[in-house]
């Protein structure tokens, strides 16, 4: 079985290509069913956002699984594979797992460390799980990915540093005022960036919003979003007198606010601090305003400088997350390898439990005078003996499953305890993953439980090694 991650994102494909591959919510169920019903994939999850479309799959064969996913993407997008293949990335096994972890933690996002993708990956997994297109592997893997992402954001400060213009403006405002509670915000212009910055300031405590715009109707529309007041452009001098924070983004030719206007307003406000953010290009606010006492003027370049410094801080935090990620990757690989031992562990426990039950029945027949209380004590203690005897072999079995000759070790274990039939029964009840289909022309592999290990020198040496480790050589 192979884990695959195949897709495209904002780094590998322009938006005009990405939009062709977007899988909308109402198409997601059909997409997942098509992926798993083709027969090459045991499990599938699709993550589709504005910045990426990715198919995660557990494939019986890496090559066949890859081809099936590429065919699916071609059908879904209506684009020939020759056209979109250069935009695809294809990861398998460890690289696929690492990619999922990085995506979920926000390390592969356009905005480094953003958290929205965590919810999107989680929702994609839960949707697939609800449809039944996930199994033991992805149920474990995606839960690990979500838990890892939560750890990444709670145990590092990657989300602390502003990396957008609007957030950077809020960060600067907090440095000037410390607290934004009850501050008055003046918005000059009603563009998207002004609105977004005002929204962040409002959510940070700024409660009074004034909006000045050439079109009064648009000013009122924006003001209503923050329970604010709309003003005509001619009222800007009055607004400057009341404002603590000014956000300007009009796109007008020439300065909308001059040094003289601000100087006059500062006298009327008794030089109370004024924080001004000019996010327009060309600039709205006269740069000479910055010469005035207690006026703090920042333009788009100043904000970009803050963003660059903060982005470097996020990169430092991201390196910490990479360490968490590698640890989780090792843990997942350990879980994968130990899974091979599960049918034998179940078979051993079943056989031991059967022996204990048989002994208890024999005691009940041979010692009919024992009370129910005495029988319960005997049952408890015999079960304790069984569990203690099994503890070390089970632990050794898990460790053997991770070693290079795992298949041989497991076969030896099975032979020593005569578990072949019991293991087959346990395997059926544990719903194992289907065997991998073989390419045409190659002899079909036999299920692992049916593999017969010849009593060769290698087998005998391995058997002796296992017996020595488990029984200290006493079995001889």
TrEMBL record:
Gene Ontology biological process: protoporphyrinogen IX biosynthetic process from glutamate
Renumbered residue ranges of the record's region Disordered: 423-476
Keywords, alphabetical: NADP, Oxidoreductase, Porphyrin biosynthesis
Keyword Ribonucleoprotein belongs to the record: no
Record's compositionally biased regions (Polar residues): 455-468
Chain positions of site Important for activity: 99
Coiled coil: none
Domain Tetrapyrrole biosynthesis glutamyl-tRNA reductase dimerisation span(s) in chain numbering: 320-419
Binding residues for NADP(+): 189-194
Active site positions: 50
Ranges for domain Quinate/shikimate 5-dehydrogenase/glutamyl-tRNA reductase: 171-306
Pfam family name, one: Shikimate_DH
Gene3D superfamilies recorded: Glutamyl-tRNA reductase, N-terminal domain (3.30.460.30), NAD(P)-binding Rossmann-like Domain (3.40.50.720)
Subunit note: Homodimer.
The protein's role, per its UniProt record: Catalyzes the NADPH-dependent reduction of glutamyl-tRNA(Glu) to glutamate 1-semialdehyde (GSA).
Stored NCBIfam families: hemA, PRK00045.1-3
Name of the featured protein: Glutamyl-tRNA reductase
Species of provenance: Effusibacillus lacus
